[in-house]
Amino acid sequence: MAGAPARYLVFFQYFGTRYSGVMETKSDQALVGVQNYLEKAAEQLKPSAPIKFHISSRTDSGVHALANAAHLDIQRAPGRAPFTGPQLLHGLNHFLKPEPIRILSAQRVSSTFHARFCALSRTYIYRLLLGCAHRSQIPVFEQDLCWAPPGGPLDIPAMRAAARLLLGTHDFSTFRSPRPEAAAQSPVRTLQLLQLQPGHGLLGQHHLHRGLEFWEVKVKSKSFLYRQVEGSTVPSLWPGEEDGGSPGGHLKMLLHVAG
User: Is 178 exposed, middle or buried (0-12, 13-18, 19+ CB in 10 A)?
Assistant: First the structure.
């Protein structure tokens, strides 16, 4: 008689350019999700029941992950001992080759643990590259790793002031996705961190790239609405013509309308 399946917490990273996002998609699509490859690799471990990865944080197409998390249950055949954490890590990484997806760690957890609902916080980093008149000027080693916004220099003090308006607990109705399923979520979220700081490029010291300037927007919360950050929160820091080039006035209006 088979015992209870063993539950594991895994942290993993991936280079998201070639995927539709992290979540599972139909296998007949041109691009599929990172989850498709994780579960395909897990099936090579010969479990006695199908394995499903329950992923903590959603990312969309082209977005990379330094450390996402998921839990999975593995039922082995009678008489087979559960995998140890290192065994699971090495086994999954072996079958994930040559995909740019890597398991960073794996450990046994309680059967009541849930990677999504037990997460304490989630952090997203957006890398900005200034000084490029055209996308072709982005260094080859930075391709797909940053966004080069059009226009001139950023008004950093104004953007930081706008970021402070979004910190704390707010009704983010104005910032969420228009998808019907998003309406079922509570729009109230708490931003713990929204920080704009200088960043670094891989070739920042090369003389041919000294005119380029990197900045990072770091956003942290226990949870986000679907597409809240990349679709609305980060872009809302940009100055707009309707409020005289300052993002603060427009943000106050959006938060007032939402509240």
Answer: exposed
C-alpha R_g of the chain: 21
pTM above 0.90, yes or no: no
3 state DSSP class of 41: helix
Please give the angle made by the CA atoms of 193, 198 and 201, to the nearest 5 degrees. Answer: 120
The rounded distance, in Å, linking the Cα atoms of 155 and 130 is: 12
Angle (nearest 5°) at CA 200 between 195 and 202? 145
Looking only at Cα atoms, what is the longest distance across the chain? Answer: 71
Find out whether the peptide bond into 98 is cis, omega within 30 degrees of 0: yes
Give the model confidence (pLDDT) of 156-187 as tens digits. Answer: 888 888 888 888 887 777 766 666 555 557 87
Which of the following is catalytic: 28, 60, 73, 171?
A: 60
User: Per the structure block, which two tokens stand in for 39?
Assistant: 């579960």
Q: Which SS3 state, helix, strand or coil, does residue 177 take?
A: coil
**Separation between Cα atoms, residue 32 and residue 122, nearest integer Å:** 23
Under a CB-based contact definition with an 8 Å cutoff, are residues 78 and 36 in contact? no
Which residues lie across from 106 on neighbouring strands? 10
Helix and strand numbers (H, E) in the chain are 5, 8
3-state secondary structure 160-173: HHHHHHHCEEEECH
Catalytic residue status for 171: no
Note the pLDDT tens digit of each residue in 48-96.
999 999 999 988 888 999 999 999 999 999 989 999 999 999 999 999 9
CA-angle at 28, arms to 23 and 33, nearest 5°: 20
